[in-house]
């Protein structure tokens, strides 16, 4: 029983990270119908910037803030400089652009910071069954998700962003600057991706450190329904718990297989994801 | 001395793919007037409205608002300059609630004016007030058209462009919408440009009518004259 509690707590903390990554993918998918495969690379660069800033100043939290800010800026620049130029073509063009960006950024990270793993500290104590850093992961992702929800639901900016995401032309006719809203969405998503990476990376950072985490994150997004932010969060927790039980009871080497099994099981039962919204009637 | 036109288009030319949809169309729209734009399917009515609203690129010619050239201005900026467009089908956002759709239209107005804009729309359309918290997808066709007009009015426009507001509506609802447009035009001192397939219904509330055929203006006159011209009615207006 003790073991079950341990695995549950640990799975929830990991799940928070997958949930944040999934949320960052869903925000962009909702607005542009693009799965942003460059997300782990953008987040990776943000973590490396945090590594450098923390190293230079000796302050972890300065690096943490720098990572979020870097995520914000890189997301906005990616949309403005790369995605917008292929926006009028099929969504596949944009997906290929994000794949290209993934390779370029991972390569660049290796060139700037070398391919050797650098030690990257936890912000707080990580030992014990439910450590301070586990709690921090849950609380920070929970807060970020609540802020995103409040932004979308209660602010004029959020209303504009939803309008632009759902019906770009109708939004423009209502006076919304759709391009600006898409840039804002990418910036927001990429900042959340940076947060996820800051939680996922310790204790070592290297160019491929986020690959496995991203696979779990994208699984969470697809399982929850690419169209639904709440689905992303639930999917993250589900994948986190599932993988934790499998690694704990059957061995960690089975985790990737379990991830695939979850994906296949969910998609066979509900092809659009567990929490996909019923598709709205088009007028 | 007649007042200068609020909105004027000069030699407007636009293409739809490889087809010339409008060639050299000139019209003037005045405050407090409903101007019906009529014609058969494919005559260029919708393209004309989309070009004025900024949704369709203009190949040649100009759109002048209060004498200022707005031909190249993006759609969202035209809204701020007083041109509101209700596209075919209403252009409402069915995923948002009724109230959110109207608030969206009022967003660029001052924060203090937004609640009044919302209240005014609900006063005008009581059925919308009852359904304010529901997704717009749940509205009937007539209610959607009300919402589209309410959303456009929330921006307090000087020019209201309407594309086939009667499309898919019962005759009784159509008549209500047409009478409402007349009333709004008189009370809010707007210029209303009404594109319609339903020529008889549109002319009944209009001050002037223009008839388009194959992208060109073939007639422009008072409604009475257009209705009296049998040849015109049979050839272009379909009744």
Kindly summarize this structure in a few lines:
Chain A: It is found in: Cell membrane. The complex is a heterodimer of chains A (283) and B (239). By secondary structure, chain A is mainly alpha-helical.
Name a few traits of the molecule.
heterodimer; A: 283 residues; mainly alpha; ABC transporter involved in vitamin B12 uptake, BtuC; two-stranded antiparallel ribbon; 11 helices; 2 strands; 1% strand; B: 239 residues; alpha/beta; Rossmann fold; six-stranded mixed beta sheet; 10 helices
Can you lay out the helices and strands and say which pair or pack?
The complex is a heterodimer of chains A (283) and B (239).
Chain A: H1 2-32, H2 39-57, H3 60-83, H4 91-113, E1 118-119, H5 132-154, H6 156-166, H7 168-173, H8 178-200, E2 204-205, H9 211-224, H10 229-250, H11 255-269
Antiparallel strand pairs in A: 1-2
Helix pairs in contact in A: 1-5, 1-8, 1-9, 1-10, 2-3, 2-4, 2-8, 3-8, 5-6, 5-8, 6-8, 9-10, 9-11, 10-11
Chain B: E1 7-16, E2 19-29, E3 34-38, H1 45-53, E4 60-65, E5 68-69, H2 75-80, E6 83-86, H3 98-106, H4 114-124, H5 126-130, H6 141-154, E7 159-163, H7 171-188, E8 191-196, H8 199-204, E9 208-213, E10 216-221, H9 223-228, H10 230-237
What is the structural class of chain A?
A: mainly alpha
Please state how the strands of the largest beta sheet of chain A are arranged side by side: 1-2
- Reading the helices and strands of chain B in chain order gives EEEHEEHEHHHHEHEHEEHH
Q: CATH topology of chain B, which one?
A: Rossmann fold
Q: Quote the CATH topology of chain A.
A: ABC transporter involved in vitamin B12 uptake, BtuC
SS strand fraction of chain A:
under 5%
The most extensive contact between chains is:
A-B, 21 and 30 residues
For the sheet with most strands of chain B, the description reads: 6 strands, mixed
Question: Percentage of helical residues of chain B?
Answer: 25-40%
